[in-house]
């Protein structure tokens, strides 16, 4: 397989004399031309004695000048070559858009399959229970973590993954929240709101792909079947609980096996069982471990099915999750009615989200007094929770620019839960998410394999700081490293970058604006 051929040689990372020499040769003009100017310098040095008698001859001035120019030009070319190595023409980079590749029996267009495993916490992959996902990541690459948007909840994050937007831009600011403009409440589990396109702002990747004439297939990805502009995925299977993973695999492979004219190039799939296990039994539970194993086998089966069709150089598979999970089996409870007093607590008209809580008080309530009570309690809590307004919300959350975001947000730290004396911890799940996206427990997964990861590895090798010359001439290789066993591990990155990754893989230029960094993937292509 190309991926392995390109990357499996461990030798490539050991800075031996040979490789350094090869790299010097790799500089081609670099190494050779540097000799030229240095000859000139030698020449100049030897003439120096003459010049003591005769001053600077015209020839010497010319020599020096041409030497300097050669040196500068060589340096510039060497730098250009190193920053844009010849590997940038890797055949996989040219395979997108109208390009067609055969798997031996059938023609395929470049295809992307993105699979979300709800609630797969980044460090679940370190439990020794996911040999297949790790094997896939070893053939491809993974990130230390995929950082969810705030709030670290399912619907805001699945829509961020689809649109590349923070919650303030895509409008899904919680799993449940009040919209003061429409005077309606969004509820993720009510068809009346979850399927109403008016709630869902931004352009999901399947809409952009559709505009580019690409066939898409959506298997239960959280979100609406239709956007405000009327766009739909070509194939759509609506959400249904307890669908066995084998059935999902069958559906995905059925799509892959469709005739060329009907076959989707962008497939999205969603699996909730691990999140459900995390909520009901907690992230450290046997149930989570068991479900993790099942999800891992699903990843292997999917991988095997694609390999059996010789599609490893055609289909990029991107496994992601939306957020992590933290143990809330024995949380410390923070009583909101204690803080606000009965009257203050009762004057809360809308309570958005959980465990972080957006508060909207009734029109006749003393809002500034309530805010002061909350802020005083937060200050005295020793960091157990914080209270924010749009003015004080941490910038890194990008969580102010929407009328749907409640004016006051109470955000507990991991280990703490907001409740009231009457509610207590009744019905509280053993695992939760929705906390600060900075907390490692909230971090999600990114594992990718396919033609994309093959290119990344080649570029990494080309740009890796293996020789002294390269270390001086190239930009520092930020954003990834390879481990001892050749697994490529990217530094944590935000999930709003995923939209543009998929667009680049599909070769779509006419993309929607996102909150991702424009050049984020440049260094990987
Ligand atoms: Zn989720």
UniProtKB/TrEMBL annotation:
Residues 1-10 have a biased composition (Polar residues). It comes from Mycena belliarum. Pfam families: Phosphodiest (PF01663). This is Alkaline-phosphatase-like protein. It comes from the Eukaryota. Residues 1-38 are annotated as: Disordered. The lineage of its organism: Eukaryota, Fungi, Dikarya, Basidiomycota, Agaricomycotina. GO terms for biological process: nucleoside triphosphate metabolic process. Keywords: Membrane, Transmembrane, Transmembrane helix. The chain crosses the membrane at residues 61-82. SUPFAM superfamilies: Alkaline phosphatase-like. InterPro entries: Alkaline_phosphatase_core_sf, Phosphodiest/P_Trfase. One of its GO terms (molecular function) is nucleoside triphosphate diphosphatase activity.
């Amino acid at each position: 397989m190309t991926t392995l051929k390109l990357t499996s040689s461990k030798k490539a990372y050991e800075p031996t004399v040979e490789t350094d020499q090869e790299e010097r040769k790799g500089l081609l003009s670099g190494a050779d031309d540097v000799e030229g100017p240095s000859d000139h310098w030698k020449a100049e040095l030897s003439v120096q004695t003459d010049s003591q008698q005769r001053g600077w001859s015209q020839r010497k001035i010319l020599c020096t000048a041409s030497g300097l120019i050669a040196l500068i030009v060589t340096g510039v070319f060497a730098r250009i070559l190193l920053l844009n190595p010849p590997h940038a023409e890797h055949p996989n980079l040219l395979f997108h858009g109208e390009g067609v590749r055969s798997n031996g029996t059938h023609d395929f267009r470049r295809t992307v399959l993105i699979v979300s495993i709800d609630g797969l916490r980044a460090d679940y992959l370190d439990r020794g229970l996911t040999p297949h996902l790790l094997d896939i990541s070893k053939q491809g690459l993974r990130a230390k973590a995929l950082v969810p948007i705030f709030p670290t909840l399912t619907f805001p994050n699945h829509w961020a993954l689809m649109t590349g937007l923070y919650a303030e831009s895509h409008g899904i600011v919680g799993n449940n929240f009040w919209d003061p403009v429409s005077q309606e409440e969004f509820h993720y589990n009510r068809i009346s709101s979850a399927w109403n396109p008016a709630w869902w702002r931004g352009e999901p990747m399947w809409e952009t792909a559709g505009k580019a004439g690409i066939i898409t297939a959506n298997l239960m990805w959280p979100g609406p079947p239709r956007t405000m502009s009327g766009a739909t995925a070509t194939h759509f299977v609506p959400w249904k609980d307890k669908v066995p993973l084998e059935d999902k695999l069958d559906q995905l492979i059925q799509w892959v096996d469709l005739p060329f004219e009907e076959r989707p190039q962008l497939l999205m799939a969603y699996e909730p069982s691990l999140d459900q296990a995390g909520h009901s039994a907690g992230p450290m539970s046997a149930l989570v471990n068991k479900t993790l194993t099942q999800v891992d086998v699903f990843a292997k089966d999917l991988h095997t099915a694609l390999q059996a069709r010789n599609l490893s150089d055609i289909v990029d598979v991107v496994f992601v999750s939306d957020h992590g999970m933290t143990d809330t089996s024995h949380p410390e409870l923070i009583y909101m009615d204690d803080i606000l007093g009965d009257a203050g607590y009762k004057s809360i008209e809308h309570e958005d989200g959980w465990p972080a809580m957006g508060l909207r008080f009734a029109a006749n309530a003393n809002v500034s007094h309530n805010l002061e009570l909350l802020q005083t309690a937060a200050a005295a809590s020793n960091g157990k929770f914080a209270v924010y307004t749009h003015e004080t919300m941490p910038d890194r959350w990008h969580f102010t620019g929407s009328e749907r975001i409640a004016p006051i947000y109470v955000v507990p730290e991991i280990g703490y839960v907001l409740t009231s004396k009457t509610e207590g911890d009744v019905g509280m799940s053993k695992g939760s998410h929705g906390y600060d996206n900075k907390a490692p427990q909230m971090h999600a997964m990114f594992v990718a394999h396919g033609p994309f990861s093959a290119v990344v590895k080649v570029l990494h090798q080309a740009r890796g700081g293996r020789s002294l010359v390269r270390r001086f001439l190239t930009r520092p290789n930020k954003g990834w490293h390879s481990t001892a066993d050749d697994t490529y591990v990217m530094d944590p990155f935000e999930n709003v970058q995923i939209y543009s990754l998929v667009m680049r893989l599909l070769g779509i230029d006419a993309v929607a604006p996102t909150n991702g960094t424009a050049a984020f993937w440049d260094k990987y292509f």
